[in-house]
């Protein structure tokens, strides 16, 4: 499942973040690449654990904790501290798959990367190229979103970033371990949750619909109880 999540950050939060990112010192992005990725990766990155990365990472995590669409789709168990990258002057990231396990720098904490996240800070009109191309069952999807919007996709997906030929593409990227390891099961729960929400909202005064909503909620939680790893 590839899901675009709008308005993770408000315009005011994006403006604040851009000021910090535009004034930050960037380093070679290969510092966080695995062996395979290092051969394909050409970008700049904020140093992990830098004051700017920590401040903006906390901002993103707080926003995601209030975002019901993200919580419903991801069912997060553990989220890797957000990282930040910048592409310009023809830089790109060739086709690769994300590392299966990520260790938080300076700690013993590790997560399994079930889902990958890219949150955009530069508007599509600010740069040419820079599309995030994700291969899924139905072909290749190209993603280039407005500032403050995010895309969520399976970490098992082959993906790449096309060369940025004008301007600069600025994003945050990170991974999460979900309570539901299997993408297919996670998609079923997401669809069921959305259906329950629509039923509750659109037919709130219908007693039959209300009873159906309660029954479907029971099904949702029983599936979650059966599949979840916590």
Brief synopsis:
The protein has 6 helices and 17 strands.
Provide a descriptive summary of the structure in words.
- This protein has 230 residues and is α+β, with helices and mostly antiparallel strands.
- The protein has helices at residues 11-23, 35-38, 51-64, 68-74, 183-202, 207-227, and strands at residues 3-5, 27-28, 41-42, 44-45, 76-79, 83-88, 92-96, 101-103, 110-112, 115-120, 128-129, 132-136, 139-143, 150-154, 159-161, 164-166, 168-178.
- The strands form 4 sheets. Strands 1, 2, 4, 5, 6, 10, 14 and 17 form an 8-stranded antiparallel β-sheet that branches. A 5-stranded antiparallel β-sheet has the order 3-7-15-12-13. A two-stranded antiparallel sheet has the order 8-9.
- Strand 12 and strand 13 (139-143) form a beta hairpin.
- Helix 5 (183-202) runs antiparallel to helix 6 (207-227).
- The model has no long low-confidence stretch (mean pLDDT 94).
């Amino acid at each position: 499942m590839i899901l675009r999540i709008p308005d993770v950050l408000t315009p005011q939060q994006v403006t604040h973040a851009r000021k910090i990112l535009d004034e930050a010192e960037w380093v070679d992005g290969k510092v966080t690449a695995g062996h395979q990725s290092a051969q394909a990766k050409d970008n700049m990155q904020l140093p992990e654990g830098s004051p700017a990365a920590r401040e903006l990472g906390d901002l993103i995590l707080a926003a995601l904790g209030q975002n019901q669409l993200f919580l419903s789709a991801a069912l997060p168990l553990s989220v890797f501290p957000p990282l930040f990258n910048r592409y310009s002057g023809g830089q790109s990231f060739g086709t690769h798959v994300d590392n299966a396990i990520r260790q938080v720098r300076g700690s013993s904490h590790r997560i399994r990367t079930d889902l990958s996240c890219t949150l955009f800070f530069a508007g599509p009109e600010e740069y040419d190229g820079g599309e995030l191309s994700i291969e899924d069952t139905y072909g290749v999807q190209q993603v280039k979103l407005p500032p403050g919007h995010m895309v969520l996709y399976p970490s098992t997906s082959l993906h790449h970033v096309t060369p940025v030929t004008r301007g600069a593409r600025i994003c945050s990227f990170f991974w999460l371990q979900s309570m539901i390891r299997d993408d297919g099961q996670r998609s079923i729960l997401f669809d069921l949750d959305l259906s329950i929400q629509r039923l509750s909202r659109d037919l709130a005064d219908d007693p039959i619909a209300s009873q159906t909503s309660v029954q479907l909620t029971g099904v949702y939680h029983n599936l979650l109880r059966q599949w979840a790893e916590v």
